[in-house]
Specification:
two-stranded antiparallel ribbon, 64 helices, elongated, Protein PRD1, PRD1, ARM-type_fold
Amino acid sequence: MEFPRHLDEESEGSQPYPLNQSQPYTCAKGHRSSLSLPTQSDGRICLVCLATLLSDPHSLSLHLSFALSNLSLALRCDRSSSSSSLPNSFVASLRTCHPHLLVGPLVRALASACDRADDELSKQVSEVVLELTAALDASVVEDFLARISDMLCKSGSLIRQLHTLHCFGVLLSEFHDSISTTSIRDKYTLFSKLLDGLQLPSEELRGEILFVLYKLSSLQASPWDDDEHDVYDNGSCGIARLSSIGELSLRHSLNVLLKTQSDDVRLNCIALLLVLAKRDIFNNLLIKDCNSIGAREERDSTDSSSETMPHTPITSLLADAVKGSLLSSSTEVQAGALELISHFLLWGPGHVGQIEAFIEENIADYIFEVLRLSGKNDALVISCIEVLSLLSTADDSFKQKLAIGFQTILSVLHYVAEIPYHPVQPHVLKLVLSCVTFCTGIMSPHQTKGIAATLTQLIKSHSSGDLGMHMETFVLACLIFVEILKSQSACEIKELPLLVKEASKHALSSIFSSHEASDTTLLLHSLYILKEALVYSHEGNTLTDISNEKISLETSIVETCEVFLLPWLQNDIQDEDALLGVLELFHMILLNGSIKSASGFARLLASSSWFNLSFGFLGVFPGESLRSMVYMIHSLVVDQILGVEFGDKIRDVCLLLPSDPLDLLCLLGQKCLFDFNLASRQHAVLVLLYITSLYGNRIADETETLASLEQYILLNSSNSSGQTDCMLLTQIILLYSSIRGTLSMHQAAYSQEAEKTVFNLITYQEWDLLSMQVDPVALRWLFRKQEITEPLSYQILNFCRSNSNNSTCMQLDKIQSTLDLQTIAELAITGDNHFIAVLLLILDRVIQTGQEADALHVMNVINEIIRVFPESSNQFCLCGIVNALNSLCGAFNSSETFEACSITVFDILYSASYKSLCDEEDWLALTLKLLKKLENLRDSQLLVQQENILLGIFCLILHYSTRQVLQESSKAVILNGSLISLMDRVVQEACAKGPALSEHSEETPLGESLVFVLLLSFFSLRSLHAILKADIDWQEFFQSGTDSHSTSVLGIPCHELCKILRTGSSLSKIVSSQCLAELFNQISAQRMHSKEGLKCSPRYLQSIIAVMEGFIFHENGIVSRNCGSILAIILGWENKCLRDCSNRWCRLIAEELVVGLGTASGLSSKGFASRQEGLVGIVVSLLKWKTVPVWIGKMFQNIVVSGIINHLTARNVTGEIVKLFRELMTRNYLTQEHVTILHHLFQICRRQLYDESEVNQLDEENGKMTTGCEDGDKLWTQLIHLMLNQSKDCEGSRVRNKKLLDEIDLFFHESRKQSQTS
């Protein structure tokens, strides 16, 4: 409530409050109206009366409380109603006229209340003071501060000044931005009084005192913040007094912090200490404290009973004081304590001693506990880690503490590693590194695995784009990984190789992807991981199942070098240390890597322009260390590619070799007679030149290299006549040949004398072409020279002998094959050299000398060359291999040699172009010998396999007769009686098996022989048409089962082919159906030409039809298509005996065709597509009859034809379908609308065929497979492939498209013809 009357009226019973407000109002004491201020509740307050009441120490507490309540109400009402800005409001009037009038009375009232120990009244006065200052300006606040500070200085004890201190502190806190503390006069006395109050037992009082001290210090209102004249007015006495009060401030504050259990007190105390710690005077005190620690320790040891506080070092006191705060449940208190510790540890020259003191006081243990319980509170984690980082600078004393808290540090590591650029990532990693480094054996395998996994994820998550971490973090992560790999528990962790593999790879990846590769520090540390990982991958382990993972780690390191480091080497490198680091890693891989890794990496370097790059490095960085490293790597690369004996030549003189490649060439131009050092250096240069020539990585211009090499040859060849090292001579020959071969296309000048010298060395000196890896360019140049074919033939003979032990490549106790078949085959296929002539020269020589084993070796090489490059058969034929094979067949009688010869003949015939088979007489002679050999084989009952090879050869000879080559050889085959009787014997034996013949597949002797006989019959049928033409009566093959074989040519009767088709194996059905299709095509063509009738009985023909009808729906598309075509041919003859059979099966066939064409699924079905030609042929044959069966018209009604047309598209139209519609149109089964639609469809189809740019076609030149046969057991696969490729039933897409276009043209022609007729 506000006062309803004046204060003096209520106390003296004066007249009531006048109702007329217009009259000037005065209180009962007669105070003027300007001092009586109206309130918001229509009351008034006389400021004089209020001041008198407040100032009177004898005023009753009740009166004071009532007055203060009304004053507070008046202030609050004005503030809440927003009327304080009005000129007649209570607050506005007070602010304008009397702002300081109540300051003194309120302070005296506060002092009186404190003297009375009236806490409620003291609290009420304090609240009114705060409300009043909030309403008035800053000068009032400063007045209050001055008066309250004076009151505190004059008071005896602060025990009763709790609310006064609270009010004082709030004023300092709330108005710190708008007030000046100069109004506080005696700061020294005030501080002394406040510091004395810290020793009082009240926690609440100490908290308020600490808050006031904190605010005064923050506002620079402390004794040591006065002007210099005020502070040092007493000279040294003033300084001593300030030092004393400063030390008391620290010690009393720390003592309170040590003893208090209140978090609020701790917060205020820590805040004060943080402010004090920033003052110079306190820094001086700490210096003094640090300097006197030793003296105090000595004094304490002599007087152990002395426990006075001043003798306790401030550092120790602080360490004890913060322990309670570190264990507080308030994170704010913990953070403040950590900040305080951090500030003291960072301070000044004595910080090392302070750190050790803190460690001795076990502060690290408390911080580890705070860290453990932090619950991932980021601010707390950061503060703890920063303090621990400071403590870790005292290495020796901190090691034990760090070991105890290692598990806690690991948990923090896992946390901070997940946050990119976390501020304490480097500090945590540094702590982990310190523990791993200095506390050997502290990590368990589980902890080691956890650290490795965390660091791997840290590095891996930032392997693209930004580095994602501080550079220091990356460096520390690399160092920790290295220490892990060195640890004893590394070999016990199964997953570690995989983690190291990922980390090492992504360490480099993160550097290069973030464009940090120019930073040498980062690159060197990532290389550090790779090197240590490589060492780790080669260490022995106790777990046998880790070996594969370590092998994978080594492979990954090599791949990392290939992906990142080799491309980096091709850049403009500016830092020699980084380059040396990379080369050291390469050296480690080549020197200590596994055989597979070292060999593969050596070849990778050699093929990556390593030699050019390395000499470029030497030109930029001419230092001795880099030069030695480069030549050592050269020697190791040579070790892996050429052999250790070649690498030793470089290692022995690596310190004597120059850095410039031109200087290396100059060494070759000197005569080395009796100069061992020069000779050794020249040998090293030759090795370098040779290894670079193998990979096309020349270190100098070819012309300069050739000139130097020619000079070396001319100067030194005569000095070692008869004593030349075989390996050195081979190296010189091959190097010279390689350079000459490279320069041959440029018509470069050369020394004829040097060339002649080289040829003499090749001819008369001992050298070995197989002793080292050979450049194909060198080989090609050597075999172009007619002058040295004879000595080269001996080298190739050695190759043939060595190759016989391994069919794919030759190994001569070297790291890699020196001369392999692939290189030899490529030499043979080029055709620009005399290699094949040399090979045939060798064969002719060994045949003449009777060296059968060598002849077999040469034949094996020829066979393998043809299998690698089948087109090389043309070169062999043109060089006269047929004559050599003819000689070989007559020279030796062993089955092994004959089989090798037979396989060669087969491969040549299968792979060669018909244009290269021009030696008719040689082929005829060879054919006759093979036929004679076949007869001998039958007589001696030798292996069936050799017979089958010969049958395959005869099939190919007959095949070429259709191309107008080898016709005389084909006649010899077709008319050979032994071959005819062999065919009869096999066929009769097969037919005698009856239904059991199906069990004799091509894997059985009888089944395989039957397949070859059937294939021979097929090619014979095709050859008969080509070479005998009109001299053969094809209907002679229509023999009855009781007739003898009346023809004198090679072939199988029709009824026997039908038996084999009905009872034979799947493969036999395919070949026999092909034979029948070919036979009926020839019979039909001959009958059409000669107009002859059938020479077989109707019953014979009906039996054939029955067999064909049974296979018209066979699961094999080839058999089904062939049988349908045969049946269509027979129906096309329109014999009377066919009428009845057509009614039985042909209708069913036509229905199947209509169903297939009338559905989209039928047109897209592969099974129907394979039978479509035969089915269409049968229906077309029926449509061509003079009297078309009635059911044909019913089956192709308009609605059916419309349905078929609706399902046709330009993509599924075939020549057979067009042919069918043409015959339907001819027979008037199509309406004009059908014809119009088909016209449009066929036009689209023809346009698409013309627009196609990619056409899959068969090789019309020879129709060969790309590879030769593998062995005798697989010959029939090549023959069947050849048979099907030449058959009309298996045409290429180009032939099918041409056939379709022809049928479309015929359809259009027939359509125009009918339209003209109508």
